[in-house]
Amino acid sequence: MPAIALLQPNHSSAPILYVDAGRWADAPSAQGVEGKKVSAKAQEVYRHWSERAEVLLMRREAADEFSYEHVPPNRVFHVKTRYVYAGKGLPMSVDLDEE
Amino acid sequence: MSPQRHYRKAPITEAIIDLRVELPPDFSAAELMKTHAAEEVSYPTVQQHYAAFGQMQGGPQVSATAGSQHMGYVFQSEDAKQIYQARLDGFTMSRLAPYENWNALRDEARRLWDIYRSIAKPSRVVRLAVRYINRIDIPLPFADFKEYLRTVPEVSPDLPQELSGYFLQLSIPMQDIKSLALINETIIESASPDVVSVVLDIDVFRHTELPADEEGVWTFFEELRDRKNKVFEGCITDKARELFEPCQP
């Protein structure tokens, strides 16, 4: 039995498309009754999708806005430092009468 | 996929050839009326085409803006079966039922596109599409949509199998022709109580690496049409074909 699979993400000619009113708006506009009914139903589905699920499933463009790239940390590394010994530390004096 | 077939009662309710373009920035929608200069007899009805837009912003105060842009014109034949749109973003040819054949649709689309092209002088074509909308009237009673359709929603056998409605949209890459098939399938109100009407809407389009010359564009339309046929045949069963009365080869 044939299986349904997602397109490989690195395929350049046909990216994975998400439910998107903009994508639907690109379709050639139909003039007949049936075509207009399909358009109305698609809009209805998109509205339902937007109202219920867009928080859970971010649109691809929004996800693309993040430019963060993870850099793995070096577990062991050497740093050159210079320090000066300034003497023994003492507590600051506090005038109790002021309170 | 199945070989190409012809039907006496093809379920096509609308066939569309569509070209999206970029026009020079100073070109105005009103100039597209010139595409109709020699077409007043064939396409006597003229409608203006507007694109509406709106934006609403919320916060301490709510503001809203709305507007519209004149995009072009829709021209209809006297019987309203043949329609072409000349717009700032492209040209679309539609044929409503009864559908004649591909050659008639393509030749008329190309004739009118040549007029559009000579007037609007598009700087480039950005998208080519062939879209066919079919209404399949499935006679009642039947036990399973799969008797007639091979592309249908799969419902878990643990759930009730009766459907009062569905809307299925599939985007299927056609990698060999660098195109995408957008299939919409849904139940609509039927004209008769004896049938269930399912719309099978197949839009095959390409928007990258488009042919640079006119001959290439129209040769590619043949490929899109051929692929649309294969998608259609792939979505139906022999029992559905019987409804459309296949012509003998």
List the domain count of chain B as a whole number.
1
Strand content of chain B is 35-45%
**Which spans of chain B of ≥5 residues are poorly predicted at pLDDT below 50?**
none
The helicity of chain B comes to: 10-25%
The portion of residues assigned to helices of chain A is: 25-40%
* Number of E-type strands of chain B: 9
The overall strand count of chain A is: 0
Helical run tally of chain B: 3
Total helical elements of chain A: 3
State Rg of chain A: 31 Å
Largest interface chains and counts: A-B, 22 and 36 residues
Biggest beta sheet summary of chain A: none
Oligomer: heterodimer
Q: What amount of the residues of chain A lies in strands? A: under 5%
What's the mean pLDDT score of chain A? 70
Terminal-residue CA separation of chain A: 85 Å
Mean pLDDT across the residues of chain B is 92
Please trace the helix and strand order of chain B, writing H or E for each element.
EEEEEHEEEEHH
Q: Radius of gyration of chain B over alpha carbons?
A: 21 Å
Summarize the structure.
The complex is a heterodimer of chains A (99) and B (249). Chain A has helices at 21-25, 33-53, 60-64. Chain A is mainly alpha-helical and 99 residues long.
